[in-house]
Specification:
This protein is of the alpha/beta class. It has two domains: 279 residues, Rossmann fold (3-Layer(aba) Sandwich), CATH 3.40.50.10540; 77 residues, 2-Layer Sandwich (formyl-coa transferase, domain 3), CATH 3.30.1540.10. The chain has 18 helices and 14 strands. The strands form four sheets. A six-stranded parallel β-sheet has the order 5-2-1-6-7-8, with helices on both faces. Strand 3 and strand 4 form a beta hairpin. The two termini are 34 Å apart. The N terminus is likely disordered.
């Protein structure tokens, strides 16, 4: 394992009871696990987290699940049964954090809602992740990433100009909500160190996505303007856009009159910088179609590498448009150690991608792991919940674990 990206033990000694599934909750708890927290992931016996059924698969194991549930302990408990809920209640006093992402109301029906759990463990940080929050008029709606992208306005801003609303090519609502949840959980944990008081952390996917859209919000809240899709270009500044070359696309961030003047020199058309149609950002926006054609004619005759180098040498921010293969194979990913070699009990070595924040003075940790379904059930019940062999055998015999 690359020591530069080894897990920081900043949360060593913190235990997390992870009752979440699929993506937003597991992403939150994976970040906590990366920082050294002990994460006990509770899954249904037999089927496990629904994420285990998501492809692609490697020898029957979900690679999606492995990337998302690194460094966790898998414990199978049927929370629909009274015995299963008793197991959860036995674990709660031993945990610092509980994370759940059920629809609001489900945990109350299970008798594991925040007020009930707080009676068992007054200092626990109870983090609830949902689509719309615990008190929204929409709280009963099912929330999936695409639903939230649609309602957040993000899809309305994404895609080609004049085209249909388009989803971002990753489950960004799930991922970003998981990050906000980790942030809120750690803030509440820090507060508990000073006040001794546990908190309920309520994180909504729709709220999270709204909070991220600063450009669109600035236009809507301050200019009473409803933005529309603009393709790859910046909604205000031009030319900040992507262009085709003979070997792939490039992006350029020509953000000022000075940068545009440098671009005009590169194109062999220095007079464009003084042309009233292009001499200011406002004018360049008004004549975008014409300017785009002139720039595209220049980039279209050169390679991706040549255009990128020319722009960078001229002081204009630029980059090639990489696919996933180019990213993973890049010198940057290798130097930063962004892909770690982890371990799976049956698959052996597997590639994993931990949270990316680096900390000074970080000591190398053991190689990250990804759990098989129920791999840690008996150990956790014995060591954390205080169950003996008789109880474990009874729970296994009646299908609770």
């Amino acid at each position: 394992m690359n020591a530069m990206t080894a897990r920081a033990g900043l949360l060593e000694g913190i235990r997390v009871l992870d009752l979440s599934r699929v993506m937003s909750g597991p992403f939150c708890t994976s970040m906590l696990a990366d920082l050294g927290a002990e994460v006990i992931k509770v899954e249904m016996p037999g089927s496990g987290d629904e994420g285990r059924s998501f492809g692609p698969f490697v020898e029957g194991e979900s690679s999606y699940f492995m990337l998302l549930n690194r460094n966790k302990k898998s414990v199978t408990v049927d929370m629909k049964s009274e015995d299963g809920r008793a197991v959860i209640r036995a674990l709660i006093p031993k945990c610092d954090i509980l994370v759940e992402n059920f629809r609001p109301g489900v945990m109350a029906r299970l008798g594991l809602d925040e007020p009930t759990v707080r009676q068992i463990n007054p200092g626990i940080i109870y983090t609830s992740i949902s689509g719309f929050g615990q008190d929204s008029p929409l709280k009963a709606w099912p929330a999936f990433d695409l639903v939230i992208q649609a309602m957040s306005g993000l899809m309305s801003l994404t895609g080609p100009r004049g085209g249909p609303a388009t989803a971002v090519g990753e489950s960004v609502a799930d991922v970003c909500t998981g990050m906000f949840a980790a942030f809120g959980t750690l803030a509440a944990l820090f507060d508990r160190e000073r006040s001794g008081r546990g908190r309920h952390v309520d994180v909504a996917m729709l709220d999270s996505m709204m909070a991220m859209q600063l450009t669109g919000l600035a236009r809507r809240l301050y200019m009473n303007d409803t933005p529309k899709p603009a393709g790859n270009r910046h909604p205000v500044t031009y030319p900040v856009d992507s262009f085709a070359t003979t070997t792939g696309d490039v992006v350029m961030v020509c953000f000022s009159d000075k940068a545009f003047s440098a671009l005009a020199e590169l194109m062999g058309e220095p007079e464009l910088a003084g042309d009233p149609r292009f001499s200011t950002n406002s004018a360049r926006n008004d004549h975008e179609d014409l300017l785009r054609c002139r720039i595209a004619a220049w980039t279209g005759g050169l390679t991706q590498d040549a255009v990128t180098k020319s722009l960078l040498d001229a002081g204009i921010p630029a980059a090639p448009v990489w696919d996933m293969n180019q990213l993973v194979g890049s010198d940057h990913v290798a130097q930063r150690g962004l892909v770690e070699t982890g371990h799976h009990r049956t698959l052996g070595d597997v590639p994993l991608v931990p949270q990316p924040v680096r900390f000074s003075g970080d000591d190398p940790q053991d190689a990250p792991t990804t759990p098989e379904l129920g791999e840690h059930t008996e150990a956790v019940l014995r060591d954390v919940a205080g169950a003996d062999d008789t109880m474990i055998n009874r729970l296994r015999d009646n299908g609770t674990i």
